[in-house]
């Protein structure tokens, strides 16, 4: 008389968790081009292995995705999968060029100098552009704070 119950079938099976699939901005632009070619959502979803609702969600944010793709001119930015504030994207690109230039000239840099330069570049880009629409989901410009890590 064994009073123990057998393990449930779910507990005994080792289910592999499906990895989260993220699409790069470039892939999203290609998806949007397929939708523009009048392919239906189901065919596009099957092609990329995603749900139809994801295709519709990407199409809903088409303007932000295309503007973010046009701003991403750095090689490292080609792998971006999330639409970000265009001023921050421009500031990061300019900051990377500035840091490379300082390294070539053997100018010593530390975190405080880099943060201050990032703040000044962000302020310069955000004031030059005026009130253009943001590719970010929020309706207002958030104050920029340079991170310490």
TrEMBL record:
Residues 91-126 form the HTH CENPB-type domain. Residues 17-67 form the HTH psq-type domain. It is found in: Nucleus. One of its GO terms (cellular component) is nucleus. Gene3D superfamilies: Homeodomain-like, Winged helix-like DNA-binding domain superfamily/Winged helix DNA-binding domain. Pfam families: CENP-B_N, HTH_Tnp_Tc5. Residues 137-149 have a biased composition (Basic and acidic residues). Its main location: nucleus. This is HTH psq-type domain-containing protein.
């Amino acid at each position: 008389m064994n009073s123990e119950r057998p393990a449930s079938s779910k507990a005994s099976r080792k289910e592999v968790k499906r990895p989260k699939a993220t699409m790069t901005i470039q892939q999203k632009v290609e998806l949007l081009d397929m939708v523009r070619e009048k392919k239906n959502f189901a065919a596009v979803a099957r092609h990329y292995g995603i749900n139809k609702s994801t295709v519709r969600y990407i199409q809903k944010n088409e303007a932000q995705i295309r503007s973010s793709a046009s701003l991403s001119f750095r090689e490292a930015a080609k792998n971006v999968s999330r639409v970000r504030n265009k001023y921050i994207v421009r500031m990061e690109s300019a900051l990377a060029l500035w840091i490379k230039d300082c390294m070539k000239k053997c100018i010593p840099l530390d975190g405080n100098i880099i943060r201050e330069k990032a703040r000044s570049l962000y302020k310069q880009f955000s004031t030059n552009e005026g009130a253009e629409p943001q590719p970010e989901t929020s309706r207002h410009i958030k104050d920029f704070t340079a991170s310490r890590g």
